[in-house]
What does this fold into?
Amino acid sequence: MKNSIIAASLAAIVTAPVHAENAYLRGFGGYTALDDLDFQTGLGPVQSDMDDGFNIGVAAGLETALMRYLTPSEQVGARVEVEYAYRENDVETHRIGGARLLPSTGDVNVHTVMSNLLIDFNRQSPLSFYAGGGLGVGFVNTNQFSAAGINVFDDDDTTFAWQGIAGAEYKLDQRWSVFGEYRYLGMTDPEVTLFPAAGGVTRDVGYDAHNVGGGIRYRF
It folds into this structure.
């Protein structure tokens, strides 16, 4: 089931949009907050508190005429784009029953490839706003999770990913813009296999990330 979802996501990513007007590139980066991870082990239920992290990415896109079929306003437009991004967060501490387990180690890093649809508002003005979302694939690496000297897991998984995006953009000239945005990134729960000392079974580890940042856009 998971493989079919990922295949469908990849098909969406490579599907070419129609009625393209202007191509662009954009780069972005910023702050990533990862929700705490909760999972069951042979030692008991573990909660992993995550440190603040970072994200960085690039996207190639096209401004299209798709919105002209829905509204005659030149103030509303649509963009489609393919995006690659990287995110990383370290473990702050692992807990069992609220008690901190020291030392606590581990980190989560994620590579995503997404296909996005963004709707622009007030786009004929220097200051515009946009909202949209994307579907794609996440490559999740959970590295060297250990608590109180016990190895818990060190594993990776490939899973279906989705995101919601909202932001504001300021046009510096006809080619260059700067923007700030919020992104929520969610995934179908990655699976990890615990080390024998932690139970030796497969568990789901949820991934929900909140990203705030900005970047630049260049139109060709």
Q: What stands out?
A: The chain has one domain: 2-219. Residues 9-18 have pLDDT under 50 and may be disordered.
